[in-house]
TrEMBL record:
Disordered, as annotated region: 69-128
Lineage of the species this protein comes from: Archaea, Methanobacteriati, Methanobacteriota, Stenosarchaea group, Halobacteria
Highest taxon in the source lineage: Archaea
GO molecular function, one term: nucleotidyltransferase activity
Entry keywords, A to Z: Nucleotidyltransferase, Transferase
Record organism: Halococcus thailandensis JCM 13552
UniProt name for this protein: Phosphopantetheine adenylyltransferase / pantetheine-phosphate adenylyltransferase
Biased composition (Basic and acidic residues): 113-128
Gene3D superfamilies membership: HUPs
């Protein structure tokens, strides 16, 4: 299962830069479609209304993918505690590495919003 956040924060520049949920969903569907020959896992894209989303209550969810950031890791472990307390099986927690920009530091939405890099990690003229 793949999930995306409902909102792109309260800062309108974030939504302008990364698009609304539907735009991000379409991009993710295209990306996952490109990988369909290499991966056979099924997926569902769900709009989140709370921090846990359907993973907090659905028994058929078996894994969660979270960033290496400490806050995301804590949330994943909190989610597993919630599931355990509810009598649900624990989720596998998958943590892919950060994607690195062309300057050797990680790509982040903050860096994109600040105009340092584009969404693909390429340095923008103002940061050279």
């Amino acid at each position: 299962m793949t999930v995306l956040a409902t909102r792109t924060r309260s800062d309108p520049s974030h939504a302008e830069l990364f698009g609304d949920f539907q735009h991000r969903r379409e991009g993710l569907v295209a990306e996952l479609g490109d990988m369909s020959d290499a991966y056979t896992a099924s997926f569902e894209i769900t709009q989140l209304d709370d921090a846990q989303g359907p993973a907090g209550t659905h028994e058929d969810v078996d894994a969660v993918v979270v960033s290496p950031e400490a806050k995301a890791q804590r949330r994943a472990h909190d989610l597993n505690r919630h599931r355990r307390d509810a009598g649900l099986p624990q989720l596998e927690i998958h943590t892919p590495p950060f994607v690195i920009a062309e300057d050797g530091t990680r790509i982040s939405s903050t860096r994109s919003r600040n105009g340092e890099i584009d969404v693909h990690g390429r340095l923008l003229d103002s940061s050279k």
